[in-house]
Amino acid sequence: MTDFLQEQYRNSHLSGGNADYVEAFYEAWLDDPESVPENWQKLFSQLSDSVDTETRHRRIEAHFQALAANGHYSAGTAAEDFKQAGVLRLINAYRVRGHQRAKLDPLGISERPQVPDLELGFHSLDESDLDTKFHSGSLAGPDHLPLRDIVETCRETYCGSIGVEYMHITDTNQRRWLQQRLEGARGNYTPEAEERRRLLDKLSSAEGLEKYLHSKYVGQKRFSLEGGESMIPLLDTLIRHTGSQGVREMVIGMAHRGRLNVLVNILGKSPRDLFAEFEGKIAADDPNRSGDVKYHMGFSSDVPTPGGPMHLALAFNPSHLEIVNPVVAGSARARQTRLRDDRREQVLPVLVHGDAAIAGQGVNMELLNMSQARGFAVGGTFHVVVNNQIGFTTSNPLDARSTLYCTEVAKMVQAPILHVNGDDPEAVLFATRVLADFRREFKKDVVLDLVCYRRLGHNEADEPAATQPRMYETIRKLDPVRKQYADTLIKEGLVDKKTIDKANEGYRDKLDAGEPVVDLLGEDEAVETVDWDPYLDGDWREEVTTGVDAGSIRELSERLTTLPEGFEPHKQVQRIIDSRRKMASGESPMDWGFAETMAYATLIEGGHGLRLVGQDSGRGTFFHRHAVLHNQADGSSMLPLQQFTDDPRRVTVIDSLLSEEAVLGFEYGYATAEPSTLTIWEAQFGDFVNGAQVVIDQFIASGEAKWGRLCGLVMFLPHGYEGQGPEHSSARLERFMQLCSGANIQVCVPTLPSQMFHMLRRQMLRRFRKPLIVMTPKSLLRHKASTSSLDDLENGQFQLVIDDPAGPDPKKVERVVFCAGKVYFDLAKQLEEDGVDNVALVRVEQLYPFPREEVQAIIARYDKADEVAWCQEEPMNQGAWFQIRHHLQACIRDGQALGYVGRHGSSSPAVGYYQVHLEQQKRLVGEALTPGKFTE
């Protein structure tokens, strides 16, 4: 023990007796160091050490028991201190568990657990202590207060219309910040008179639209907001409050409930347009545009705020409820990068969840896990839960989750959670401002759980009372929140009924006229955002020059392979760097890693951005890329590609967390907001993309057809049969091919480094932004036959189809074998070994959009061939065969036979036994090179 502490004990009441009261203080200190007076904090911190809490606890206890044996203290002082410790524990109990006694349910029927911790007796206190003054610890307010005032402050703060969960946060500064804001208010959430009138106006708008639609479009689905109308003033306040702090763009994601209300009353969508959707009057002018239901549609607008204009963007979303959330986050990240918003204060992502969805959809856990990661941080997302207390349709919450609250998942990132009674709209606005300010201060996710109810069923044709009779008996008797609040303001003399009625009539008049009910900014005042106009009429056949002067390649390579003094790469990486110097000089053939890197370097130098994300993308899963270099001397890293841009933010190559669904959704969202950046998501193995199938189906393949959303996202999916079993062979090419229609995506299978180079450059240089799905190689990365030269990069272009480079005599060719990917090299090797000269091998490098003209021209060239075969490694029911057979059929001549060569159909992508794999591969190669032979 230090001399300082010894002296402190000798000269204070700490020097003695019963250690129980110290034990109580210490327990309070463990829960919250700032809950005890400063001298106690200092004492406990100096007596503690780096071992575990329980060991420290025993040490403290033993120390004070030893002091007690010295008999240096009075029983009276001990009793007072014991009471004081009980008061601090009581304060801490309210902070930890007060939310369980809060008045959160507007219906008043939810069963709450018993909370003995909040009773005086639990902490050895009683009513006789209420008028005694105690130290209030870190409770906001005076240092000493009567116990009565301390309890009242705690009850008003933690047991009113807001239930607070924040004591799971380990950062003391964050907890202290929340304590000051919440305890300082003491449950008084009443804003200024003008804001109260605006609040009533927004509640009236929310209710007014629902009643209008209910009477005009009887029985049509709209997923009404009735019962949760407070969400409209919540979002209105969030926009105005954050706008006054400098937020210039807000990206919103939400599912069905209340979406139409948000579109009209927040974003200012024309009621006339909404009504036309109800009446089915919207006809697509593009045959490839299928459209979507009205409650999936997005919208964007510009609105005024006290701090200037703000651009609002409500993301389009499918019925896979929470899958839009990572898309919103990715879009926000792209906008922050474009604005050079390093502090992440100008773009705010907002996600509106359902109570069942936030608890039930795993993508939320993935997204929260991403929230503080380097490559995905957005400065915190503002989460709003429209908590119907009923789940998705008519379920019981006990069947929907295993937790008291639906928001438990947010605790994994120590997000503060405020549960708010939706029928106390003033509390809702207070909580909104507190959380918005916390997010701005600490750059973390925040959660506002809007506890409300659903006046109607899941959709307007549903009858919820069939399964929830007690709840809906209560709902039928309950006045809507607008009426409750209007009555309050009328009673206080802030408004009168005549004024309210007049405002409501004016709102209905605007709806009748189809006029926007929100003040919108004109184009000259709007926030400048990305211009997609240059890409609207893009053509996949647009010819662009993708070749790059060999001198430029050498110069860029020299800069990439020249490392700073003192930077020591791993010896294997150094060998790769040395070999790339030889490739640039023409001394050795060019491999895939070099060609890919040069594609990035030339694009970045030309003004494009790069974002490459995957689970092992920095070095490359197959140790081939090494875009990120690591210094063996000190552990530091560098991204050499960043030297080609004046804005390093626009060049990102990063290893993602172990997630497919959320990360792919994030990258899709990024690409939809940033057409000038080459955005790539890479699977560690191609079949891992299975975990992101919802993103592929609902956004990547169909986003343009449903919503007119363009996106140039690139997906790298390592694909090829190497005998590694069913889980590391197939990127499920057939699934992508099945989704192809109307030039919606591109599917390529490059087989040469130069093809990779030109394909990536073409993706950015064309005025054409469609997702690009690439079946990338594995073993070909170092295959001696799969190399290119500097001349290929300088004078070549991406070849949709590659004719047989062996140049067989067309007069001798009896069979033309078309294939894609690695199998070509197995065929070519066997053909050379066997000396076969009557078979031509042709590679289709772009499977969709299918290059019919080029294929037809090659077939015509071999005019003596009686057969055309399609050879693939994948089983017959997988791969490309069934999806391109009709194209090949259209290309062959009359009388030519068309057939399949490859593995037989299978429910599994590949066999698990290497020897069986070799036997299958040998058979399919032999059949492919034998005219007259097809796989039955």
Named at the architecture level, the CATH assignment of the largest domain is 3-Layer(aba) Sandwich
Radius of gyration: 34 Å
Specify the overall morphology.
globular
Strand tally is 24
Assign the CATH topology of the largest domain: Rossmann fold
Characterize the quaternary organization of these chains.
Answer: single chain
Runs in which pLDDT lies below 50 for 5 or more consecutive residues are 4-18
Average pLDDT reading: 91
- Terminal Cα span: 86 Å
> Roughly what percent helix?
40-55%
> What is the number of domains?
4
Number of helices: 32
The first-level CATH class of the largest domain is given as Alpha Beta
Strand portion, in percent?
5-15%
Strand order of the largest sheet: 3-9-10-8-7-4-6-5
Structural class: alpha/beta
**Biggest pleated-sheet summary:** 8 strands, mixed
Task: Identify the CATH homologous superfamily of the largest domain.
Answer: Thiamin diphosphate (ThDP)-binding fold, Pyr/PP domains
